[in-house]
Amino acid sequence: MAAPVTAHNSYSSNDLSHLARTECSKSESPLEDENFTDDVVELVRKEIGGDLKSLKKVSGLLEKLTLENKQLEEQVLTVSSSVPLRVSAALSTAEESRVKLESLLEKERVLSNTLQQHLQGAQVWADGIGQVLGQLDTLERHMKYLQCLARIEELSDSIQQYLMTNSMWDAVGAIDRMASLDMGLRESGCSHLQAFLRETLRFWHKILKDKLASDFEEVLTQFHWPFISPPTQTLSPPANAQELNSQLELLVSQLLSLQTSWTFSLTETPSRPGQSQTPPLSLPIQIMLLPLSKRFRYHFTGNRQTNNLSKPEWYLTQVLIWMGNSSNFMDEKIQPVLDRAGAKVNARVELCRGLLTLAQEKLAQDAPRLLYDDALFCHLVDEVLQFEKELRGTHSYPRTYPGVLHILLEETVFQKWLSVERKMAVEKVDAMLSAEGAWSSQYKDITDMDELKAPDCAETFMTLLLVITERYRSLPCPRAQLSFLALQKELVDDFRIRLTQVMKEESRQPLSPRYCAILNAANYISTVLSDWGDNVFFLQLQQAAVSVGEEILGPLGATETGRLASLEGSLFEALLALLERLRGDMLGRLLDAVMRDVKEKAQPYCKDRWISLPSQNDQATMSLSSSACPMMLCLRDHLLQLQQMLCLPLFQTFWQGLAERLDNFIYEDLILYNHFNEGGVAQLQYDMTRNLFPLFGHYCKRPENFFKHVKEACIILTLKVGPALLLCDMLKQSEEDEGILNHQQPSPESALNELGVYKLAPSDVQILLNLRSAWLKQ
């Protein structure tokens, strides 16, 4: 019984394997069919597994899969049968839409044709209506034109009626309404109507202004206007002072009301270069200026003796006098009236503006006539600058309003001014350099005032530059100020060249007072220019030079422009560099001359027999070497002489340079050139520390710090025998072990530092130790 069951199980297993192989053999598709076969095999293994007892599940699995397959087939049949129905419904809807669209298009064509026919028929009516509307528009414009004319005639009649009844306020109101009508017509194209209205407005404006001006002048006359001479306190006020004040206030108010936005100024002046646009003068001030203007033109025009080209101060002074005489009346009488009328103007400033107009017109006429006479032109410029200074200072004229300096900024006048300044400056420089006391200081006998020891020529030259600065400081145009700055820099460079030429003539005697005076002059100019570089005025010019300076000062370059903009450099940087070069060259020549003299006097001292001098123990007292006396005396005399002739900064630079050169000379030509015994070393140290160093001790606290070679050489030479031998052995050992690191042995530099030697190198110390070899071997 067991055999059949086994056989059946074997058959079933083989059948499953055959089924899997059959499914695999039927799969001829690519990767996705292989995946499907794997899924089937995995399903069989999952549901049945490898246990033969689980084969009873095959029938249930088969039924389940058959049922699922049937359900899927039914769904496919349902979908396939419903799809054609939806497609046919969509096609039917599209067909209906197409039919409706064709119907609508047909209706649109019919309606368009009907509308076109209607428009063609209505065009005739439209053309007729357009002609009628055009005629109506023309009639309307004609009516408005006539209405404007009627309005003008009405206002004119009103003004005439008001004038006849002396209703001045009503007349002023009618003038204002007529001016408003003119403002409204400005955008229209009715040029003839505008011209007629303006002529009418001008006509009535003049009549009303003349009437008010006449009344205003009568009132002013009773106040003794104009004040030709200074007003006196002895004049008693008029009996009807209160009535006059009321009339004054009424007339000023009416005149201010008459001055509408469309007003006619009595004193219109064309704008000039450098002159800002200013509002017109108020009408009361214009009327007050009339008698002063008549007097000015009477005296300073035509063939009057007071109209003299060589005397511009006459009319400029007269204008200032009138300003001063009238200031109290303007402040006490006119200003309160203007304030109550709501006029935001300063009466005194307004009067100054009007009087300045007279001076400006006169200057504009006279300045071109003086271009060919340098003396008269210079006099004119001086008077104009003085007038501007007094105007801004004494009379407190605001800087926001132009004065008279813009007259000097017109191109031809300004170029003439520059050329005359250059010519006069060059002539003064020639005169000051050829003067007898050009190279002596006027403060030489006053110690406190002669720190820089500047010669007269240098001080006079810088005073000349300062005067030029004060002349152009108040100019309202930065370009003009930069032009004068360029002139100053040109003059400084010319003076530097002249100093160089004189210096070359004196270079054969660099210790002469004149040579030192030239050096002091270069230092003085450099010091003053450095101070100017930090001055607020020149810093402002520096900022202006960044934006407009290239047109006047030439191309600056990106680096220089950046330095000027950041205030790192100064406008005088290039000149300071040239002056520093001159100063350095002259100091070098001076040091060369002194060192030649010192070296000549030091030759016997350098050739002393230092190796055979007696020991210090053999001498009762140490004294200066006799051979060193000429050198020390020479040094002392030169130091005292140059301290008197050079200014303090230059002398400090000089003696420090001399100490450096002398240090190198003694070290190289004396110490390294000789061998020393104990007595020679002691004598050398005594000469240096007790005689040479104290010579420079008058100018600093520790003069030995300026003789580092000599000081350190004396330290090495005066070492005792034991320390000297140890130091020599260490230096030799260090030289042999060069390149080998040895942290236990101190470096030669640290050993020398412990002895106080910082300047000399180990190799130099070895040379010095060898100079005392005669007694090192003992």
From TrEMBL:
Residue ranges of coiled coil: 55-82
Record's keyword terms, sorted: Coiled coil
Biased composition (Polar residues): 7-16
Tagged with keyword Chloroplast: no
InterPro entries noted in UniProt: EXOC6PINT-1/Sec15/Tip20_C_dom2 (IPR042044), RINT1_Tip20 (IPR007528)
Protein name: RAD50-interacting protein 1
Matching Gene3D superfamilies: Dsl1p vesicle tethering complex, Tip20p subunit, domain D
Disordered: annotated segments: 1-32
Xref: PROSITE patterns: RINT1_TIP20
Gene behind the chain: LOC109067653
Family: Belongs to the RINT1 family.
Signal peptide segment: none
Keyword Coiled coil among record annotations: yes
